[in-house]
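Input.
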Amino acid sequence: MSATTATATTATATPPAPVFPPPTSETNWLPRSELYKWLNDPNLVPGRDFLLVDLRRLDHEGGTIRGSINIPLHMPGYSFQWGLGSLLQLAKAAGGRAVFYCGSSRGRGARAAGWLQDYANQQAKEQGKEEPEIKSYALEGGIRGWATAEPEYVKLIEGYDEQYWKNGGKCGQ
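Output.
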């Protein structure tokens, strides 16, 4: 009698990000020129007067806009929605304005801004307030638009990697 031996292989894969409904709030788009003014205003400080959040994870390369904090939208074992209460508190402490961006801000940036605005609206309603305490934005054009804009924008990118952006925002060739 012959025995058949089966070899099991296990692959380590990144679990899919939790699926959440799209935000109900319309995206508030912040023009690049407006954020540029904020960053160059000596009376405004990122983290104190506005919250600037880079949502990139694996594509967090080529640099980041000065004053940004990195909170990836999708990470194994973490859901952006689970941190909305903390983000709302950070946004309140930072002057009531939160700006989110990713590569283009059309996907992650717009969703994150919408989800935080939805949460702020819900909290205001539950507290009997007419208006939420914060306004959440997505940066028009995202980091790609910022990095390929005029030189004065590029000067505000910490860790700017010229080759990365010459490659169209991709690593290597």
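Residues 1-17 have pLDDT under 50 and may be disordered.
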